[in-house]
Amino acid sequence: MSKNISIIILVDALGWELLRLMQPSTYVHFKFKTRTILGFSSSAIPTILTGKLPIEHGRWNLLYRSPQDSPFYWTKPLNILPDFLLEHGITRKLINEISKRLCGAEGYFSSYGVPARHLHLYDVCEKKNIYKPGGIPGSTTIIDYLDESDVPHQVFSYHDASDQVILDTIASNRVADGPAVYFAYLAELDAFLHKHVGEDCLVRQKVDWYLQKIDDIVEKAAGTGKDVRVFVFSDHGMTPVTKHYDLIADLHKAGIDLEKDCMAAFDSTMARFWIEPGAVRDRILTVLDHCSAGRILHDDELQRLGVYFPDHRYGDIIFLMNPGTLIFPNWFGTYAPKGMHGFHPDDPHSYGVYMSNVDDYHPDSILDLYDIMKKEIDLQREKRF
Ligand SMILES: [Zn+2]
Questions:
Q1: Which pLDDT tens digit goes with each residue over 289-337?
Q2: How far is the CA of 128 from the centre of ligand 1 (A)?
Q3: How far away, in angstroms, is 209 Cα from ligand 1 center?
Q4: How close is the Cα of 75 to the center of ligand 1, in Å?
Q5: Which of 81, 65, 115, 122 is nearest to 99 (CA)?
Q6: Alpha carbons 75 and 71: distance in angstroms, whole number
Q7: What's the CA-to-centroid distance between 22 and ligand 1, angstroms?
Q8: How far is the CA of 80 from the centre of ligand 1 (A)?
Q9: Cα(336)–Cα(205) distance, rounded to whole angstroms?
Q10: What is the DSSP string of 14-30?
Q11: How far is residue 227's CA from residue 318's CA, in Å, rounded to a whole number?
Q12: Strand 181-186, strand 270-274: pairing
């Protein structure tokens, strides 16, 4: 009989800075600011699910150099096509879909950020659904731990349903022997904040909607005699975009051909280059050294941030933009969002949140969340026997 339940809700991009806009929750009132890690959700969520740094679980940016395992290997003959055809939105979409099917990927699979001509040199780090057991090969995730426990549980993500359906499903659990642990990953706030961060009224409404739903879950469960332990946390925050900077134009002006001279990836907050030492590398470094819109992250800093990969699979040179400044245009898409994440973890807007209705844990980093979830699963297991 599961009279006590633990509900774990990961809300993508619910930043600490958003809390100042929110109505206080009736139940979830213990709040802590959590430091994220450098990168995007492709590294922050694996860090939450494993309690490990990117260098340990291997996930950082979505694309990394790996010609031998590329799911895009079949695209090399397409390189005879002219640029306008190869880089056309429909072609890129088809390449993405076909490659995803060919390798049987069921996770977040995207080929954007690098030129189509180079795709056969890259692999995607998230080919499996990370919310299923075995989702991060080589690491034990909290989903694996839950799967191996004898605790009745249910896991939800955007692969299964919308945020509303997920929250309503949890709230409607009234059976005494229903799940004792819920894990839900809610993805929709992230997309909303990319579009609307800075529009405080709209953002407040949206965040309040999530908190109201969570309060409903606690109330409904309490109404059926259950004691609910709720944990709401995020992977990172959302930084308002204040400036655009055309880094690609700077490199072109310096005579660098980003397809012939090197391999390069341009996301909105980070540029990465793969290039052997030599004259072109020196020219790229000169352009980056003179660019005040961002800075090169050197090996010692990458090591401190837990993202230094000795084989440089994620890039020989990593250039990170200043908080709020977007590389735009970039190779990720034509849409310029109002908010972005993936800046330095020290940026106040990068911090995530942890909230709970119990005062048992005091995390200060997303690295601490795995242990909290593990303790909750252990607690529910102990209650059953
Ligand atoms: Zn996002």
A1: 999 999 999 999 999 999 999 999 999 999 999 999 999 988 877 888 9
A2: 19
A3: 19
A4: 28
A5: 122
A6: 9
A7: 20
A8: 34
A9: 23
A10: -BGGGGGGSPPPSS--E
A11: 48
A12: unpaired
DSSP sequence for 31-95: EEEEB--SS-HHHHHHHHHHS--HHHH---SSEEE-GGG-TTGGGGGGGGS-HHHHTSHHHHHHH
Give the distance (Å) from ligand 1 centre to CA of residue 175.
35
- What pLDDT is stored for residue 3 in this prediction? 74
pLDDT at 143 over 90: yes
Å from CA of 194 to ligand 1 middle:
6
Distance 220 CA to ligand 1 centre (A): 31
| 16: confidence class by pLDDT, cuts 50, 70, 90 | very high
- Share above pLDDT 90 across residues of the chain, in percent, rounded to a whole number: 79
For each of the domains in the chain, give its residue range(s) and CATH number, in order of start.
4-53+131-239+346-384 (3.40.720.10), 63-124 (no CATH), 242-336 (3.30.1360.180)
DSSP lists the bridge partners of residue 274 as: 263
What are the tokens at 276?
Answer: 């052997």
Q: Is 242 helix (H, G, I), strand (E, B) or coil?
A: coil
Judged against a pLDDT cut of 60, whether residue 2 lies above it is answered with no
Confidence class for position 177, pLDDT limits 50, 70, 90: low
Q: How confident is the model at residue 126 (pLDDT cuts 50, 70, 90)?
A: confident
Whether the bond into 71 is cis, omega within 30 of 0: no
- 287 Cα–ligand 1 center, Å: 28
- The mean pLDDT value of the chain amounts to 93
* Position 222 confidence tier, pLDDT thresholds 50, 70, 90: confident
Under the banding of pLDDT at 50, 70 and 90, the label for residue 264 is very high
Query: Cα of 241 to ligand 1 centre, how many Å?
Result: 13
Task: Identify which of 219, 223, 241, 247 has the alpha carbon closest to the alpha carbon of residue 327.
Answer: 247
Give the distance (Å) from ligand 1 centre to CA of residue 207.
16
